[in-house]
Design goal:
With 101 residues, the protein is of the alpha/beta class. It has a single domain, classed as Rossmann fold (3-Layer(aba) Sandwich). Helices cover 37% and strands 31% of the residues. The chain contains 4 helices and 5 strands. The protein has a 5-stranded parallel beta sheet with strand order 3-2-1-4-5, with helices on both faces. Strand 4, helix 4 and strand 5 form a beta-alpha-beta unit. The longest helix is centred in the N-terminal third of the chain and has 15 residues.
Length: 101
């Protein structure tokens, strides 16, 4: 039984900067405390295999958009396409939040 499900969405599936490192570290902590934490990205990144190990499941944006997994919260950092952003908003509604730095 999980406490809930969180999805992080970003451009890179790997360490590209501070947001990806933040997502990775918080995912590890949340998972240790009973949460399921997934990632979706648009392209590979540095140390991708290590990064993937921080999450329960890693998917592409298209897999998330076409899937039916319920997420309590979807945290978006960087999506380059406006049509994809609109589809994410349709899929998650008010559960989609934007994380900027």
């Amino acid at each position: 039984m999980t406490n809930g499900r969180i999805l992080y969405c970003g451009e890179s599936t790997g360490f590209a900067g501070g947001i990806e490192r933040f997502a990775y570290k918080t995912a590890l902590c949340l998972r240790q405390n009973g949460w399921q934490v997934d990632w979706c990205g648009q392209q590979g990144g540095r140390s991708e295999s290590l990064f993937r190990n921080g999450f329960d499941k890693v998917q592409t944006v298209e897999e998330v958009l076409e899937g039916d997994t319920f997420y309590d919260l979807a945290v978006l950092h960087k999506i380059l396409s406006l049509p994809v952003l609109k589809r994410l908003r349709e899929r998650f509604g008010e559960r989609l939040v934007f994380l900027a730095h």
